[in-house]
Amino acid sequence: MNIILASQSPRRKELLSLMGIPFEVIVKSVDESFPAEFDPITAVRFIAEKKARAFISEVTDELVITADTIVTIDDLILGKPTDDAHATDMLMRLSGRRHEVITAVALLHQGGITVFHEVTSVYFRSLSHAEIAYYIDRYQPFDKAGAYGIQEWIGAVAIEQIVGSYTNVVGLPTARLSIELKRYPLKLS
Length: 189
Prior knowledge:
One of its GO terms (molecular function) is dTTP diphosphatase activity. Its cofactor is a divalent metal cation. This protein has helices spanning about 10-20, 40-55, 85-95, 130-140, 155-160, 165-170, 175-180, and strands at about 5, 25, 65-75, 75-80, 100-110, 110-125, 160-165. The protein is α/β, with parallel strands linked by helices and about 190 residues long. The chain has one domain (about 5-185): Alpha-Beta Complex (Maf protein). Strands 1, 2, 3, 4, 5, 6 and 7 form a seven-stranded mixed beta sheet that branches. A hairpin with a 2-residue loop joins strand 5 (about 100-110) and strand 6 (about 110-125). The two termini are about 10 Å apart. The relative contact order is 0.19.
């Protein structure tokens, strides 16, 4: 069975490779908007499923894997920052507090879609304005939900604790994905 990872994320590509699963990357442009009344879990699941539905008429026996990750704090969804000021605002909001990272994964196979999600709690220590400015300038986190990558400098110096899946925070909950993939006849590479 051929596997398609429908994601441009280098982190998702790396994690799926670490799982020993051969795959190809095919990405479609998908509107990632969702109804304003959706809670964070419903929103992220909706987007992951929407990404999978973009392939529904084009695949037969392939397995398509899509994912979406959001950061949430105080019932506010933090997506990807648009500029330095937006990233600064996000990181100031996360500083010294706990937030949740939610990743939803959709698996499309033979017209059927399975969606699951993982929630990980992340505790940030208080960050100074200088630390936030350094991180944004050095790491340009504009492709990351919540304006940070746990695998980068900020993860090493600012995250005091995580409760849940580390790889979920990176962008793909690999332990849960490996369980879900047992339903399909896959060969490891």
